[in-house]
Amino acid sequence: MEGYGAASCPDLALTFAVAPVRATAAAMTVNVGPLWSYEITLPPEPQSVGTARRFVRERLNVHHLPLLVDDVTLVASELATNALSHAGTPFTVTITAFADDVVLEVRDGGASRPNRVDAGVDASVGRGMAIVDVVCRDWGVVVDGNVGKAVWASFEPV
Fold this sequence. Notes:
By secondary structure, this protein is an alpha+beta fold. 35% of the residues lie in helices and 28% in strands. It has one domain: 2-Layer Sandwich (Heat Shock Protein 90).
């Protein structure tokens, strides 16, 4: 599944990450919605990548998740850089925590999917999605032809 990383069903995963779900076990109903969620929209400017990193780092630290800071911040940097380089539109960074994972999402106005490529030893670009693929638990892309795409990555809270 080219461009989908390790995700087996990105549309389902994004839907689960966005919409609260109710599971019923016997007579008990449990809300599996987000524990918390933050969002920032940034202009297509180089300094926005640093702003995205700070945004993610600060939110994870506020919620006492220091062991996720390096990995999620690195992925935020890669996805924000891709949004800036390939879409050239404003982009929105969202970080959401659930009981079993933290989901980072970057939405932009471009329709092109990021691809994991094997960059040569001397290549100065092309390693971003390979890094994302190694660092996060799952990642995927949801394209909406009318408004762009969302690239998401999930991480296991430690």
